[in-house]
């Protein structure tokens, strides 16, 4: 059914039409009146000490291959692979019958040599008495003296052989030279082992642990010059970041700087020591090493994400007390730990936009929320 023209005209010019027009005008004006929402953070004084990051590798404090020092068949393996052992713990036993027999044989030879020596002494003393009564000649006494010396030399040689035989016997018991963790055993009971058989297992000490990394020679020289001039302290906190991105809780100390420069890379090897009582750090792990100054270094800094760049350089968007946005050119001294250190261009307490900068332009009013509040 078509409405009469008079009714259509009344609706178009009546109160309903006026209300609709007002609503349409408000809808068109609403987006222009709504201030963009942004997140801000203040420029503040922070302790951001100078630091440098390097790629390093963890190296065991002590690590040795356990080898057999005498030949023989293996009688026992006295550890579990991967077990913690103390210094002196028995790891392997080699068949020792041959070595015990050698000791006993030499002990018998020593007793015979001692008897020979005693007899030579008796003959010498008799010759001395007979010489006093002119019964024997001086030459006979000289021969007797020589026989005593020969007997004593034979006895010394046999005692040396006994010491060697006892040492070989002791080598049939292979023990741990220091506290550590034993690796996989390369041999089983019954295997023929000896000095030429290679490593039987590996013993590794993981506490403390070393981190070795290479530092550019130029960086090392600059560091030493700044220490000499008193600009920075000579000490450094050393931290390591593990492969999963977590920071190892204990700090380390630098205990070695190589005196040689690697010719191919022009770097110097530096080593730091870390406590590792729980065995978290493992030998050979690739880590990130961070060197940080020990003395505090208070600087003006802002979150790094607040810094924008164009052809003219770095700038930030500052929100003033009137909520208006201002583009501010800044000089960045350095960036570290997610912050930009401001050399000039900002004052402490000024608010810079960290989120939503793409929605603003200089001069507009924004709805600014602090970073902590926005995150909550």
From TrEMBL:
Query: Which residues does UniProt assign to the signal peptide?
Result: 1-27
List each copy of the Multidrug resistance protein MdtA-like beta-barrel domain by range: 208-294
Q: Which family does it belong to?
A: Belongs to the membrane fusion protein (MFP) (TC 8.A.1) family.
Protein keywords: Coiled coil, Signal
Instruction: Give the main location.
Output: other
The molecule here is called Membrane fusion protein (Multidrug efflux system)
Q: Which residues form the Multidrug resistance protein MdtA-like alpha-helical hairpin domain?
A: 104-172
Q: Please name the GO terms of the biological process aspect recorded for this protein, alphabetically.
A: response to antibiotic
Q: Does the keyword Coiled coil apply?
A: yes
A Pfam family of this chain: BSH_RND
Q: What's the source species for this entry?
A: Mycoplana dimorpha
Domain Multidrug resistance protein MdtA-like barrel-sandwich hybrid per the UniProt entry, residue ranges: 63-193
Q: Which residues form a coiled coil?
A: 134-168
Q: How is this protein annotated for GO cellular component?
A: cell envelope; plasma membrane
Subcellular localization is given as: Cell envelope
Per UniProt, residues of the Multidrug resistance protein MdtA-like C-terminal permuted SH3 domain are 298-358
A molecular function (GO) held by this record is: transmembrane transporter activity
């Amino acid at each position: 059914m078509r409405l009469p023209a008079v009714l259509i005209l009344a609706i178009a010019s009546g109160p309903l039409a006026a209300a609709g027009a007002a609503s349409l005008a408000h809808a068109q004006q609403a987006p222009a009146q709504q201030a963009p929402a942004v997140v801000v953070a203040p420029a503040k004084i922070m302790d951001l000490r100078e630091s440098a990051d390097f790629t390093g590798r963890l190296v065991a404090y002590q690590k040795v291959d356990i080898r057999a020092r005498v030949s023989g068949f293996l009688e026992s393996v006295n550890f579990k692979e991967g077990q913690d052992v103390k210094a002196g713990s028995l790891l392997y036993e080699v068949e020792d019958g041959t070595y015990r027999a050698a000791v006993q044989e030499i002990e018998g030879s020593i007793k015979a040599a001692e008897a020979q020596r005693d007899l030579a002494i008796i003959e010498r003393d008799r010759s001395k008495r007979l010489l006093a009564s002119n019964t024997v000649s001086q030459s006979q006494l000289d021969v007797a003296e020589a026989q005593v010396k020969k007997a004593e030399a034979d006895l010394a040689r046999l005692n040396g052989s006994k010491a060697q035989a006892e040492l070989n016997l002791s080598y049939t018991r292979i023990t741990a030279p220091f506290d550590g963790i034993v690796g996989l055993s390369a041999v089983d009971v019954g295997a023929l082992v000896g000095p030429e058989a290679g490593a039987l297992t590996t013993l590794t000490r993981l506490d403390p642990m070393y981190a070795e990394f290479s530092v550019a020679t130029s960086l090392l020289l600059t560091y030493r010059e700044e220490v000499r001039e008193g600009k920075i302290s000579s000490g450094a906190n050393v931290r390591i970041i593990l492969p999963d991105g977590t920071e190892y809780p204990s700090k380390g100390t630098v205990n070695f700087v190589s005196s040689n420069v690697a010719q191919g890379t022009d770097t110097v090897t530096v080593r730091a020591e870390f406590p590792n009582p729980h065995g978290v750090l493992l030998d050979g792990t690739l880590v990130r090493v961070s060197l940080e100054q020990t003395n505090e270094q208070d600087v003006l800094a802002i979150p790094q994400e607040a810094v924008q760049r164009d052809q003219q350089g770095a700038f930030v968007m500052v929100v003033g007390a009137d909520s208006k946005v201002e583009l501010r050119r800044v000089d960045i001294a350095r960036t570290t730990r997610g912050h930009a250190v401001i050399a000039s261009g900002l004052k402490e307490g000024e608010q810079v936009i960290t989120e939503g900068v793409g929605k603003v332009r200089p001069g507009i009013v924004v709805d600014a929320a602090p970073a902590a509040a926005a995150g909550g």
